[in-house]
Amino acid sequence: MDSLYVKVKRKVAEEARIGLLKKGAFDNGRRVIAEGDNILFPITKRTPVRGGVIVKRKAPALASRPRSLAEALSGVLSEGELALLPSGFDVVGDIAILELPAGLLKKKKVIGNTLLKTFSNLKVAALKTAPVSTEYRVRGVEVVAGEKRTFTIHTEYGCRYRLDVSKDYFSPRLGTERMRVASQVKAGERVLVMFAGVGPYAVLIAKQRSPKEVVAIELNPDAARFMAENASLNKARILSIQGDVRDATPLLGKFDRIVMPLPKDACDFLDVALPALSRNGIVHFYDFAGSPDESARKVASLCKKLGYRIKVLDAVACGSYSPQLGRVCVDLKILGKNK
Ligand SMILES: C[S@@+](CC[C@H](N)C(=O)[O-])C[C@H]1O[C@@H](n2cnc3c(N)ncnc32)[C@H](O)[C@@H]1O
């Protein structure tokens, strides 16, 4: 169907455009057309413009930005390849981190470049090349498009974190869980964050609550250095320690709350955490398990074996690890030691 346009000479086009906008007659849903020395502005109603004539043309709709990576890649990848695309990707700062199946690895560059063109806030496209497995819980990454760097600054709940995605653990998916834990901290508490990474729990707690003190321990020297920098960057008062939780914790006195965000191995450190808690102190214990209840039963039994009476306050699912296992946080109150 033909649509209405105002046709004007190029030299008066800007004046005409402003006039149409002022009269509310400019149609934002269609593209402006150039015809030789003339410009055709789409209009919503017959509106006279000085030096212009009203004409009718067939008009293509204004091209809209693709809403997803799959939409942006249609026509670039085959139907079979599109079906293999992951449904999403992680964004850490301005770095997109994608996980591609083997069948799409040969297309990694075109996928990375398209991703950066589609989402203009992203400057680096990186690929997960290995799962999180080392002691520092760092994953392998390969930059496939954009700027050649793995350093970025991530913002979460108004706090900024400097980090290197190839050297430090950081999951943007855990922001809500970090806030869930932080929001339980009461004024005047002494808080220990074990396995602290680049400091997202410690900084958030120090910045948004009013603790007496936040102490944070991290083994990875690179992450620990960023944690100290992130404390300054966010004007958060943290005692950041680079070292092993097992060695450092017994030297630090008693805490009202201990966060243990090392789901794969936190149970191996309960023997260090429990003696460091004040009476009625609280532990946020992370675990990979089939269900929150399964994890709560496991931690309750471990605490009993270690000679402690506890009360499970909550057990929440906070992410997935594998099709069978989820990430769970069990919040526990330590009531005391068995006689
Ligand atoms: C799953 S990451 C969590 C990091 C951070 N809490 C976060 O949410 O981003 C676990 C961290 O524990 C650190 N880590 C592992 N074993 C440790 C130990 N024995 N003592 C101190 N830190 C340790 C790793 O280097 C890693 O940065």
Explain what you see.
It is a single chain. This protein has 339 residues and is an alpha/beta fold. It folds into 3 domains: 2-58, Alpha-Beta Plaits; 69-149, 2-Layer Sandwich (GMP Synthetase, Chain A, domain 3), CATH 3.30.300; 173-337, Vaccinia Virus protein VP39 (Rossmann fold, 3-Layer(aba) Sandwich), CATH 3.40.50.150. The protein has helices spanning 13-22, 69-73, 79-84, 108-118, 175-182, 200-208, 221-233, 245-248, 270-273, 292-305, and strands spanning 2-9, 33-35, 38-42, 53-58, 90-92, 95-98, 124-130, 140-146, 151-156, 159-164, 190-193, 213-218, 239-242, 255-260, 277-289, 308-320, 326-337. The protein has a 7-stranded mixed sheet with strand order 13-12-11-14-15-17-16, sandwiched between helices. β5 and β6 form a beta hairpin. α5 (175-182) crosses α6. It is elongated and about 95 Å long. It binds S-adenosylmethionine (SAM). Residues 135-137, 169-170, 174, 195-197, 200-201, 217-220, 223, 244-246, 261-262 line the site of S-adenosylmethionine.
CATH level 4 superfamily of the largest domain: Vaccinia Virus protein VP39
Biggest sheet character: 7 strands, mixed
Helix content: 10-25%
Based on the coordinates given, report the CATH architecture of the largest domain.
Answer: 3-Layer(aba) Sandwich
* CATH fold node name of the largest domain: Rossmann fold
Give the structure's gist in a few sentences.
This protein is α/β, with parallel strands linked by helices and 339 residues long. The chain has helices at 13-22, 69-73, 79-84, 108-118, 175-182, 200-208, 221-233, 245-248, 270-273, 292-305; strands spanning 2-9, 33-35, 38-42, 53-58, 90-92, 95-98, 124-130, 140-146, 151-156, 159-164, 190-193, 213-218, 239-242, 255-260, 277-289, 308-320, 326-337. β6 (95-98), α4 and β7 form a beta-alpha-beta unit.
